[in-house]
Every structure is written in C-alpha cells, then in structure tokens.
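Hi,

Apologies if this is the wrong queue. I'm a grad student, and the batch job for Virulent strain associated lipoprotein from Borreliella finlandensis produced an output file that my downstream script rejects. I'm not sure whether the problem is my script or the file. Here is the sequence I used:
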Amino acid sequence: MQILILIKKALNIRLPKNQSPKLKTLKQKELKSKTEEELKKKQEEEELKKKQQLKNTLLNDLKNSIETANEHKEKYKKRMKEEPEEQYGVQAFKVLNWGPGTEDVSANTERSIRFRRHTYTILSVLDIDELKEFSDIILLATEENILGAFSSLGGVLDTASDHLHPKKDKLNNLDISDLKTLKNSFDKILSIIETVSAMSKQLILDYENNKDLIKTDINKLKSHVKKLHNQFREKAHEAYNLKEFIVSTYNP
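Support response: The file is valid. Your script probably expects a header line. Output copied below for reference.
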C-alpha cells in the first residue's frame, strides 16, 4: 500500500512555477538584447532624421543664395539697356581703356559694357549721385584702376552664378560635407562683394567728413585710396580662387 502511494506521489510531481535560474537568465539576456537593438535602431533613425533636416536646411539656404545672386546679376544686365549716355557721371570710365590703341571702357563694345555692368553691380549700394562722387574721388587720387577690382568681382559673380544656377535642383545629389563646403565658398564670394561695396560707400562718407584730412590733403587722399585699392585687389583675388574651386569641383 505504501509503495502504491509513493508511485502516485511520483506521478503527481510538477515543475515549480518559477523557471529555472538558467532559463530565466537566458530570457533576460534576450530581452535586454532586443531592447538595446530597438534603442540603437531608434537612435539611428533620429540621427538620420537630423542629418536630413541639416541637409534640407543647407540646400534651401544655398539655393536661396544662388537665386538671389542670379537675380542681382540679371537685374543689372537689364539696366544696361537703360544706361544714360553720360553713364551716371562716372568720368573714370573715360580714362580707362584695354591697352594702347584700344577703346575706353566708356565705349559701347561688348567688353566695355560688361566692365561697366560689373562696376554698377558691385557698387549697387550707391545711388546715382554717390556713383559720380565715388568716381570723382578716385580720379582725384589717380586710382581709377580701382574699378578693375569691381570688374573682376563682377566676373566672379557672373561665372559662379551661371555655373550653379542651372544646377541648383541637382544639388541634393551632394552629401552634407560637400554641401557645407560649397555653401561656405559661395557665401564667402557674396560676403566679399558686400564688404567691398560697403568699403566703397564708406570712402565717400570719410571724404565728406574729411576723416584723417583726406579731403583737404591730396597726399593723404592718395595714400588712403591706394591702400583701399590694394585691399580690393586682394579680395578680388580671393573671390577668384573661390570661384575657380566651385567651378572645378562641383558638377552635380
């Protein structure tokens, strides 16, 4: 009878409700691994989203800069059709030419018209009266060649915007690093042009206020404008190098 009872008890043995420590640890590891994978995936998705947002911002800012620069350029192309015969009183155009035996930049040849357009474009911060005054000041200082820096900068703006504007809708093919570099390069060109424009306007104000006696002492005026001319040349050279980099590097 006792043997029968023992057999029944043996048959009624059940596993404990709690899992074995080994099995429990394994499931905990699996759960932890799954949680880590989900967290990693979420972090990757967030990182990807941030990168896309950054790229979109760079793209939009760059496209806006390109569009604005192109509109500025095209505006002055149209304005050349309305250029008055006296060329806004800029007498400096009449004393500059392309070399011995060549026409003045006041002439109606293609290159002379382009030269004047570039000058007007870079000096767009000046009104008509200020254009004439600026010309008179640089003639007094015998630094009329300073307009050559404006022609160079205008040429840089033409080339850079003509290169990028038709391609602006393909710029999304560039990665973030290239977009940053391109945007910084193009923005630097625009910044240089803005700086030169502001410095040109400041020359007029300084002359009117006789700052450092540049209005009453011709030698001080010459020294001041010559220094300004050298700065403009350096900035034009910097802008030219940036333009060359853009044209040679970016063809999306």
